[in-house]
Structures are given as structure tokens and as C-alpha cells.
Amino acid sequence: MKIVLDAMGGDHAPEEIVRGAILASRSCRSELILVGDESRIRPLLQADPPEREIQVVHTDDTISMDDPAGPSLRQRKRASMVVAANMVRDGQAQAFVCAGNTAALHQIALTGVGRLPGIKRPALAVVFPTHPTPSIALDMGANADCRPEWLLQWAVVGSVYARLVLGRDNPRVGLLSLGSEEGKGNSLVAAVTPMLKQSGLNFVGNVEPTGFFRSQVDVAVCDGFSGNLILKTGEAVAEWFMGQVRQAAGSSPRARLGGWLLRPALRSLAQSHDHSEHGGAMFLGLRGLVIKCHGRAMARTIENGVRVAEEILVSRLLAQIEQSLTQEAAPPEATPCPTD
């Protein structure tokens, strides 16, 4: 198995991306390929030699975190993100891990890697540590403005994912909204509700964020704008809460003793809510495997992103999803889009 990484993507590239690849060379079995400016990558590899050789593919163009997505990206054929995605398309790698610009990655993966049958737009799918069982939510930031048909397609592919990965026999599908009662929500929620009712999925209606985090559904569907707000708010609240706990644990001798006794449990809690421990999110709906790591990804995040990609490749999840989509009722096609 070969996994390609965009060495130039992310807030801390290329140093942390290369360092993450070096860590992954010691913990994972796949062959790793770094795409980017070789004059910056090679010294980092020489300073901390990997356990196994890491291939470097040189290119001198980089898509920055603030580059806008749009038609101009198609002209940047030597950008590291484009080169890496094309390697997956051409079979030179089986997975692509990237911490770069999400909107650009979505567009490049859509046009470069390609889509599964019946899927017009891939969605960023995140497995949340909801209680008592984990749940999947999509889209978490790839598509800010959405069509009802896309949400229906994501519900179908998300349901397949929940069955194959989370082990849910008949996954409960919910539509994230500001109220659990039918009729609450914006025009997008109103438009997709009857489509979900007629889909044959186990659609249980609207679900509020509170209900989602209480595992009232196995699959939660929403537009990428709302989903990304939920994702980033969750991260911010988790970081704030753990900071408050640490502050409280050091406020007095008795609190310090209690904090010391609780340290193993608190460490486990912090790890379960730390994005660096989960590696990244999968673009669900593509023919190839693309893992999006956090833009602030450090080396540990990249290492875990490679691990996640390797686990998905070993499980042959993409082939199972594609087979399931062809065997089940295909999601309805959306109306043509400019990039189709």
C-alpha cells in the first residue's frame, strides 16, 4: 500500500507534515510519499531519518490555506495538492492524507479522484465520540451551500458507512436542525425531509445537536456550513473545558490531590476529544481514499491520519461501500452542476 501526503498543506507545513510522516514510518507498514518542495523536505528527513525510506516527489507550487477554491485551481497542475490527488487517480498511491485548504482539497479531490456512482458531491464525514455509542455526521465542512439531493445522497452513503464500520444493522438517520419537531428548520431542511421519508432509509426525523451527542441517531446529515460550525464549536468547548478542569485541579492542595487521583481518567477523556488522536476525517463519496487532517495538524495528527488511511485500506471499506451502493437503491442524481 502506498499513501501520499501533501507536505506543503497546513498551518505548520512542511515541518510538522514531514515529522508526522517520519513517525508514521515507524508505526505503519505502508510506503509513504511526500509531495512538495524537495529543497525543504530533504533536510528535515536527513535531520531525523525515517525508519523506512520515504519517497519525495518534487513540485514547487503550493495551494495556501487562504487560496480561494474555483476554476483557477484547475490551472495549477503542479500544485502539491493536485499532484498528490492525481497520484491516487492514476493508481500510483492508494490514499491521500492532507492538512491543507479544505475547500481546495474538496474541489481537487472531486475532479481529480472522482466520485462513487450516484454521488454528486463528496462530504466530509466525522465519527463523533457521542454517548453511549459513536455516531457519524456529514457534511462537516466540504460543501457550505447545498442542494437537498446532496443531503439525501449523504444519508445513503452515511448509512452504508454506519452499517459497515459502526456495526449498526439498521442505522438511524437524522437531519440536524434547530428543533426535533418536524417543520422546524430552514428551507433546505424542509426540502430534504420528504425526500428522506421516501428514501427507504431508517429516517427518524430532525435531531438537535443535544440529541446527536446523546446518540439518538447513528447518522446525522446537514449542510457543510452548519456542520463545520458544530465541529469547530465542539473542539473549542472541549479545549476550554479541559483548560478549566486543569485550572480547578491546581487551585488548592486538596484539589491538586484530587486532580492527581483523577489524572488517568482525565487523560483518557482528553484523548477521546483531541483531534490529533483521531487523525482526520474521510471524504465520503469518492472513488479513492482522501483523509483530511486538521489545518492546525502537528506531527502526531499526521501520523494518526496515515494510520487511519492504512486501516481503511486494509478493511477494503471503499470497495464495500461501492458494492453496497450498487446493490441498494441508488441515491437520486442532482441537477447538473458547473464542475460536473
Main traits of this protein?
46% helix, 11-stranded mixed beta sheet, 340 residues, 15% strand, Isopropylmalate Dehydrogenase, alpha/beta, 2 domains, globular
In short:
This protein is α/β, with parallel strands linked by helices.
Task: Describe, in plain words, how this protein is organized in 3D.
This protein is of the alpha/beta class and 340 residues long. The chain has 2 domains: 2-119 and 285-326, Isopropylmalate Dehydrogenase, CATH 3.40.718; 123-236, Isopropylmalate Dehydrogenase. It is built from 12 helices and 11 strands. It has helices spanning 15-27, 38-47, 80-89, 102-112, 148-164, 187-197, 209-213, 224-249, 253-272, 275-278, 299-315, 317-327, and strands at 2-6, 31-36, 55-58, 95-98, 123-128, 135-138, 172-176, 202-207, 219-221, 281-284, 289-292. Strands 3-2-1-4-11-10-5-6-9-7-8 form an 11-stranded mixed sheet, sandwiched between helices. Strand 2 (31-36), helix 2 and strand 3 (55-58) form a beta-alpha-beta unit. Helix 3 (80-89) runs parallel beside helix 4 (102-112), helix 5 crosses helix 12 and helix 8 (224-249) packs antiparallel against helix 9 (253-272). It is globular. The model is unreliable at 334-340 (pLDDT under 50).
